[in-house]
Amino acid sequence: MQWQLPMKRMLYALAPLSVAAIYFFGWRALAVLVVANASAFVTEWLFLRQYREPVSSAAFVTGTLLGLSLPPSLPLWMVAVGAAFGVAFGKMVFGGFGKNVFNPALVGRAFLYVCFPRFMTPSQWPQAFTGGAGGLAAWMPDAVTSATPLAAARTSDAAEWVHLAIGNVSGSLGETSAILIVIAGLYITWKKAANWRFIVSGLLATLVCQTLVWQVGFAKAANPLTGVFGGSYLFALFFFITEPVSGPKTNPARWMYGALFGILGVVIRTFSGWPAGNMFAVILCNTFAPTMDYVVNAIKTARKERAKAAAASAKGASA
Prior knowledge:
- The protein is mostly helical.
- The chain is built from 14 helices and no strands.
- Helix 1 runs parallel beside helix 3.
């Protein structure tokens, strides 16, 4: 086993969200996380065994991120399949750790969404436990279907931002408590496991775009507060677009990348059939990350060449 410090810090940050998932959705949340991590580890081990290389700690980050992005009631065998697919086709086919083009956890989630839409649809998700011991004394909530806050916001004013901040609402395991996500996100930013430029540009772009579509009244768009606090937005903002391998490496490109995520997220969840389309927004951003770096580096190179040419011209004139 090979442990990397940034990956350890990511797991430290995800630990409170994992505990909260158990409190809100029962002990089945722990089973989902265990199965996702076990499947991610075994899949990476099977790919690396022929090279006699150790499994990286990133496998557990992938498993935990995927598990926390899944609904509480998803069958465990689907959790295992999603984690295996994410690691195999989101990372290992590109060469393994540090070479993936797309975020492996989101590749696994997108695969599950496409293959098992009925289980990944918000109308099938149970409501979170509220008050007292929460889910600490239960396996999972009763099978009462409930729309997620962003889905409700598309059709009514039922979503209350206070509940979104606390987390006792329907949703994916680790994506309901805005307060905990922000605290965990600030921790990884402080520890430099996440670049703050992604977060700031993404948040600003989201607030501007969400305010515009809300004021205009497009498709009963959610108000900016619900748009930020609801659904998977904050989780994607802090933990998915900040993934260093699948994101751009230059600072100007990081600003553009975060802004693109903010714009795409608002457009997808306002005008498409997916109230929380942040998953697809991140995957699309992953696609354009190399191009953004290429453009930034090309502009830098062109400026250097012009500066050299100007210096040479000035030197020739003075001679």
